[in-house]
């Protein structure tokens, strides 16, 4: 049930006041799901849903900056998504490319691309290649964009790079196998050097990871929201943060 405007604003402010700075997750992963279903609700083209979802990304990042989130990882295009129809994939990759350009031009964020650019259309792979982390004296929000991303592929790529590194240094592979530990592989993940996500949000009511940050999310908290991504509101985000703040994290204990 939708609240009247003045009650909505009051409830939103109340939610904000209930969140202490210490309760805000440092790293949030987001599975931006539901663009196509949102478009179908209005008998609109699928591309309109993807454009609405792209606009929501920029709105969402504004909320994150306002509340003090330091790192956001956006699951924008999986390796499985590349099997969609040629026309939809063309439109989707063009919208993603435009979104990346907007992020790269934003002085308030630093951007890191993660995924397999070699399997992407050339125009999108080129944009990803140009993305660099931009230092800022204002300690910007850091945004990872997962495009052409698959969780299993990331782990395989990490192990492959680990082995190449060991061979380049003349290390014996049998000795490496004996001493190999979690940190050895973590150093070669797409998110190497970054904290693991504290909270992973998925919209659209789906309750599965779909390969998103499989390694990094081992001890993350998960929040599944019924709202489709283009309809995801600030109040939905605040509810996710309130839910997270009320949990007792055990990190496998």
Automatic annotation (TrEMBL):
It comes from Sinomonas flava. SUPFAM superfamilies: Undecaprenyl diphosphate synthase (SSF64005). Belongs to the UPP synthase family. Z-FPP synthase subfamily. InterPro entries: UPP_synth-like (IPR001441), UPP_synth-like_CS (IPR018520), UPP_synth-like_sf (IPR036424). Its EC number is 2.5.1.-. Binds 2 magnesium ions per subunit. It comes from the Bacteria. Pfam families: Prenyltransf. Mg(2+) binds at residues 33, 221. Its cofactor is Mg(2+). The active site is at 33, 81 (proton acceptor). This is Isoprenyl transferase.
């Amino acid at each position: 049930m939708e609240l009247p405007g003045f009650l909505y604003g009051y409830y939103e402010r109340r939610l904000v006041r209930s969140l202490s700075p210490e309760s805000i997750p440092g790293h949030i992963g987001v599975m931006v799901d539901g663009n196509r279903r949102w478009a179908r609700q209005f008998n609109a083209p699928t591309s309109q849903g993807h454009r609405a979802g792209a606009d929501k990304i920029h709105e969402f990042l504004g909320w994150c900056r306002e509340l003090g989130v330091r790192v956001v990882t956006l699951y924008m295009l999986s390796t499985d998504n590349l099997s969609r129809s040629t026309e939809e994939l063309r439109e989707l990759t063009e919208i993603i490319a435009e979104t990346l350009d907007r992020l790269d031009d934003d002085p308030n964020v630093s951007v890191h691309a993660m995924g397999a650019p070699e399997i992407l259309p050339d125009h999108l792979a080129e944009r990803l290649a140009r993305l660099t982390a931009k230092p800022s004296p204002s300690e910007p929000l850091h945004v990872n964009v997962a495009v052409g991303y698959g969780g299993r592929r990331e782990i395989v790529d990490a192990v492959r790079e680990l082995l190449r590194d060991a061979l380049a240094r003349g290390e014996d592979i049998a000795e490496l196998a004996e001493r190999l530990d979690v940190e050895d592989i973590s150093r070669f993940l797409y998110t190497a050097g970054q904290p693991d996500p504290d909270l992973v949000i998925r919209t659209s009511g789906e309750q599965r990871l779909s390969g998103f940050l499989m390694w990094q999310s081992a001890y993350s908290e998960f929040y599944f929201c019924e709202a489709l991504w283009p309809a995801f509101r600030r109040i939905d985000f605040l509810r996710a943060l309130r839910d997270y703040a009320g949990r007792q994290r055990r990190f496998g204990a």
